[in-house]
Amino acid sequence: MINWDEFLIPYKQAVDELKVKLKGMRKQFEYGDEHSPIEFVTGRVKPIASILDKARDKNIPLDRLESEMQDIAGVRMMCQFVDDIIKVVKKLRMRKDFKIVEEKDYISHKKPSGYRSYHMVIEYPVQTIHGEKKILAEIQIRTLAMNFWATIEHSLNYKYDGQFPEEILMRLERAAEAAFRLDEEMSLIREEIKEAQAFFTKKKEQVKDH
Ligand code: 0O2
């Protein structure tokens, strides 16, 4: 029998620490004059019921969760533009506080569901009272449009238990296509948007100074 409270402690700590660190990246970009490629960061520890469902679906024995379930600790980084994702990935590859063990590019190769996102599986060292413990965590990097689609699809998946009615399936496919086109359109006017945002940020600062 797993003692879940104890088992999940390092995962909770990893999510908390990673959130602070990755939000820190966003702040650093904002201090510079650069457009921040990171819009916002979220994180969660997978609920126990979802861990058990996934272990059952993927035939993962419970005594091998630590080495075989990569996303018990999960952090998400949302970007405005597809180009921002590449920028964030490059910065993450330069970091010295974790080791990247796998990268999955579901942007160049979307999933059959229509899901698009960039995944990085990392080995993250957590300092515990018993010494260092390395755990696996997953960082998902996606645009706001990809996140919108994935969030809606995830809720529907939960409702229909993966067995979507034909009509919903068709609409989700069309929505995935629309999200992809939205990303493309936004990329085409990216420079205008960035300039407008820089102007807006400066104006806000001027108001603050007075
Ligand atoms: P939750 O509730 O987010 O924790 P695979 O066998 O490749 O399908 P694997 O090996 O578990 O999946 O890893 P992968 O591909 O990195 O996917 C893990 C997570 O990515 C999922 O976790 C989702 O968060 C997200 N994801 C992957 N595919 C889809 C999809 O088709 N739709 C949505 N909405 N999200 C997806 P969980 O455990 O599914 O869910």
Description:
The structure is a single chain. This protein is of the alpha+beta class and 210 residues long. The chain has one domain (4-209): Beta Polymerase, domain 2 (2-Layer Sandwich), CATH 3.30.460.10. The protein has helices spanning 4-31, 48-57, 65-68, 82-94, 144-160, 166-188, 190-209, and strands spanning 40-45, 73-79, 99-105, 118-128, 131-143. A five-stranded mixed sheet has the order 1-2-5-4-3. The radius of gyration is 19 Å and the shape is globular. It starts with a helix and ends with a helix. Ligand 0O2 is lined by residues 46, 50, 54, 71, 104, 111, 113, 115, 119, 150, 153-154.
Which properties best describe this structure?
binds ligand 0O2; alpha+beta; 7 helices; 210 residues; Beta Polymerase, domain 2
List the helices and strands and how they pair.
Layout: H1 4-31, E1 40-45, H2 48-57, H3 65-68, E2 73-79, H4 82-94, E3 99-105, E4 118-128, E5 131-143, H5 144-160, H6 166-188, H7 190-209
Parallel strand pairs: 2-5
Antiparallel strand pairs: 1-2, 3-4, 4-5
Helix pairs in contact: 5-6
Bound molecules: ligand 0O2.
CATH architecture type: 2-Layer Sandwich
How many separate structural domains?
Answer: 1
The gyration radius over C-alpha positions equals 19 Å
What would the principal axes of the Cα set say about the shape?
Answer: globular
User: What summary fits the major beta sheet?
Assistant: 5 strands, mixed
Uncertain runs are none
Organism: Pseudobacillus wudalianchiensis
Domain RelA/SpoT: 43-164
Pathway: Purine metabolism; ppGpp biosynthesis; ppGpp from GTP: step 1/2
GO biological process, one term: guanosine tetraphosphate biosynthetic process
